[in-house]
């Protein structure tokens, strides 16, 4: 059952990546575009390694364009995610990625005319209710911050990105698609790279190399998690792998509570008993909703 181990490892690494994202954006830098650009460079480097050392497969011109579009969508999703992380607690942001399967279902339903089973509809309701609950600190006091809407956009863009990626995987192996998508992401970031040179210089003068090293290592960890989840998908059932990897939200909540309690100077979140109960309830609701959507 190695796929279980790889799925949990991917979730664990992604939880660490999310927490480091929050630390970077709250303690080291003020502009979310900077980690996005770092992500683009690391992704380009990884894609070059694939093109050089692996026997990647050829794609048609249309499929290459689709892969580049997928990379552009991934960058937009990451852009909204980083903005959400900048202004909201990370334990509230990460669970909202659960909404991606909902958008996938609706997009597929619109274009293929698919009618969902009652269990899937119930799962969708749980996901939506959980998303509403995670956005508030108190029951019966619901308010949607900008971060909530940023994550709605991020989840929608990721849904389209995943649909395109799934389609492209019918024509080539994962590493080929991965490489082309990363190239597309870098191309999408070229204008941002051109106009943010001064921001990088200012950050280097103020903080030195440490922020760049940390952000680069964090993106490398992200790619490692992608590798683990890919291996898990290859040897296990994709629906089971996706469901199991969703425990990332529980890891994020656990880590943020521990760090906020023992090292509040690194990461500080509200950790009152009632607040933790609300967050835990919302995460559990969204987790089971995701399982119902995947298997219903």
**Oligomerization:** single chain
- Which geometry do the CA atoms define? globular
Q: What count of domains describes the coordinates? A: 1
- Distance between termini? 23 Å
Strand content: under 5%
Q: Helical percent range?
A: over 70%
Q: Work out the radius of gyration.
A: 19 Å
Structural class based on helices, strands and sheet pairing: mainly alpha
Quote the average pLDDT.
Answer: 85
Q: Uncertain runs with pLDDT below 50, 5 residues or more?
A: none
Kindly describe this structure.
By secondary structure, the chain is mainly α. It has one domain. It has 13 helices and no strands. Helix 2 runs antiparallel to helix 3 and helix 2 crosses helix 10 (210-235). It is globular and about 50 Å long.
Structure in a nutshell:
The protein is mainly alpha-helical and 296 residues long.
Question: Secondary-structure map with pairings?
Answer:
Layout: H1 2-28, H2 33-53, H3 61-87, H4 90-93, H5 100-112, H6 118-134, H7 146-168, H8 174-195, H9 197-207, H10 210-235, H11 238-245, H12 248-262, H13 273-295
């Amino acid at each position: 059952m190695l796929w279980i181990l790889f799925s949990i490892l991917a979730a664990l690494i992604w939880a660490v990546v999310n927490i480091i994202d929050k630390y970077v954006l709250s303690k080291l830098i003020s502009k979310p575009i900077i980690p996005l650009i770092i992500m683009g460079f690391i992704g380009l480097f990884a894609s070059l390694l694939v093109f050089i050392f692996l026997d990647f497969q050829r794609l048609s011109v249309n499929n290459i364009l689709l892969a580049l579009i997928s990379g552009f969508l991934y960058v937009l999703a990451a852009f909204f995610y980083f903005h959400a992380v900048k202004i909201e607690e990370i334990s509230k942001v990460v669970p909202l990625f659960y909404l991606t399967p909902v958008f996938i279902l609706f997009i597929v339903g619109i274009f293929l005319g698919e009618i969902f089973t009652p269990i899937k509809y119930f799962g969708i309701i749980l996901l939506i209710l959980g998303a509403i609950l995670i956005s508030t600190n108190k029951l019966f006091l619901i308010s949607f911050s900008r971060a909530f809407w940023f994550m709605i956009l991020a989840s929608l863009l990721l849904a389209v990105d995943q649909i395109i990626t799934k389609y492209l995987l019918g024509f080539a192996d994962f590493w080929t698609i991965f490489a082309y998508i990363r190239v597309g992401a870098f191309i999408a970031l070229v204008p941002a790279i051109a106009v943010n040179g001064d921001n990088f210089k200012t950050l280097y003068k103020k903080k030195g190399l440490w922020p760049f090293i940390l952000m680069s290592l964090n993106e490398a960890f992200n790619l490692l998690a992608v590798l683990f989840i890919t291996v898990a998908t290859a040897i296990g059932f994709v629906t089971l792998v996706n469901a199991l990897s969703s425990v990332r939200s529980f890891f994020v909540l656990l880590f943020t509570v521990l760090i906020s309690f023992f090292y509040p100077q690194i990461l500080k979140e509200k950790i009152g008993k009632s607040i933790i109960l609300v967050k835990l309830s919302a995460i559990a609701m969204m987790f089971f909703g995701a399982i119902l959507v995947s298997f219903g």
